[in-house]
Write a structure and sequence with these properties.
6-stranded antiparallel β-sheet; Jelly Rolls; single chain; 5-stranded antiparallel β-sheet
Length: 258
Amino acid sequence: MIHYFQKQMRRVVPNEHNHVIRQFSLLFIISLTLVFVDVAQTQPKETRFSDDDGAANDGQLGDTVDNLVYLPTILKPPEFLVIADFDTCKPPNNLVGDMGAACPDPGCPPPDQLFESYPAEPERGCIACLEYHIKNWGAFWMKLNHLDMTPYPYLVFDVRGTGDIIGKQFKIEIKRNCHSTLDGTECYELEINYVGGVTANWEQKRIDLSEFAFPPGWQLPYKSIQDWSDLEELVFTVEGNQSGEDGSIYLDNVRLEK
């Protein structure tokens, strides 16, 4: 999150004033600490009786009552959660999950190729570049490490494109794969959403997670997501009939927001 804040500051503060960024980062950390910690004062009280009447602790007349109030610390989820800002210029992502390319055949040989790289751009740092040459499909996946998305209604990211993707759309998939064993777990859960309106300029996309749905026509064992508190994978997919056959998608600041 701090990396994301510093990246946004670099876009508006000249390089010669890096000390300003450091000072604002310190203030940002202090502010987060104050926001995250909350004291709950509405917790139930425990009643304790003591022997002022010489009898047992039976709560009878003559016993005194001590009310003990417990004040637990409650941590609230942050206002946004960064999945990948790509600032390390390589995997893993900000959730310490791996990232990479997928195609119909291992190694992405023709006719379906997708190559991911993490070039640096002025005022942004490193980004993800997904260059594709496909007939069928190619994908860029990010492991989520059992991420709980329930506090967040929106998936947000910056995107621009070149080539065939301009004026077309790509698919986002959220998955809970699970697997394992004789009546044990299984899962095979996923939901998708198509995102269009990609241009040659950087734009922010803000996708309501309620717009994701199970893809029509898919058969068992696949099903819609049953548990949004235990998600395993986020995938950006290009398809020949939806995204065109040759193009590049550039991504930055992939995150969840309230």
